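User: Please run a holo structure prediction.
Assistant: Happy to. Please share the sequence and the ligand.
User: Here you go; the ligand is 3-isopropylmalic acid.
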Amino acid sequence: MTAKLLILPGDGIGPEIVREAEKVLVALRDRHGLDVVWEHGLIGGAAYDAHGEPLPAVTLEKARAADAVLFGAIGGPQYDTLPKDKRPERGLLGIRAAMGFYANLRPAILYPQLANASSLKPELVAGLDILIVRELTGGIYFGKRESRVVDGHQVGHEVIPQARVASDVEQYSDYEIARIAHTAFKAAQLRNKKLCSVDKANVLESSQLWREVVCEVAADYPDVELSHLYVDNAAMQLVRAPKQFDVIVTANLFGDILSDIAAQLTGSIGMLPSASMNEKGQGLFEPIHGSAPDIAGKGVANPLATILSLAMLLRYSLKRGDLAEKIEAAVQTVLAGGLRTGDIAAKGEATVGTVAMGDAVVAALD
Ligand code: IPM
Ligand code: MG
């Protein structure tokens, strides 16, 4: 069956990096027999500029009809003053929610060729290979939000005559926790069979439920060693001894924060892909870095995270692990050959631009 993809370049460097991944896709179609068609859509600021909405209905329709979405990046300073329901981030959060992309897989791998790019000592990160499984459609990101003016607001023993008060609710059901826990345990079974669940169960009710449900689900996976950490300790352990981790599973906001830390451990946020899957096996695949407005349009952005996101797309949504490996091997070849974009170059090392990096990966596919 012909696979159908939707490509959403988005804003900032999004279009430049996605164009390079698209070249890889063309090569896989034309030279390696991948049966695939794709179309493009608008999201984020680009969609706001064209339709006045960060997630137009037509984009969502196209996403529903696709097996998978390849996504660039969204956001830019020109959108910072928009009302919050029009902001580019709403496009991304909206498509995650509407498509039910609840399982966010964020690998943090240190490429041996880039061992010196990390801000940690090489011996702490050499061979690092962590997978963060972040719950993506629940928790505080999607809990009840409120902003109000309260007369006689109490702070400790003080009563403030009038205060502006805002709140966001962190809420999880056992269903949502069990669902992401199963994803994480299954991922751990395919790796080193170690799962660390991260929560704040010493303070939060929602985290107590989280821990309870993860322990219940663990009964189905006796071959996986389960541990628990509070999120503050997990953040510290990630920079103290990151190689103790195999798979980490955590709630939406904690996962947002910990995955940025993990990315920095590899020293190359421009290298890291991600997958967000729903129950039907559809997925959204995106680099974990943002739209980098400061370098947008300059042709210097690193396209490898997007190209590696295409590899994840092939592996998880199209079940073509063979082609995913082909892409990953091509990236390794290019790095081993010494090609570097600015973000992964050591001091004084020569650099290449976005297009040259993409061309090199395409050439290395064969
Ligand atoms: C991410 C990003 C998003 C998030 C933003 C852009 C809404 O930081 O994918 O990690 O917070 O989930
Ligand atoms: Mg983030």
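DSSP finds twelve helices and twelve strands in the chain.
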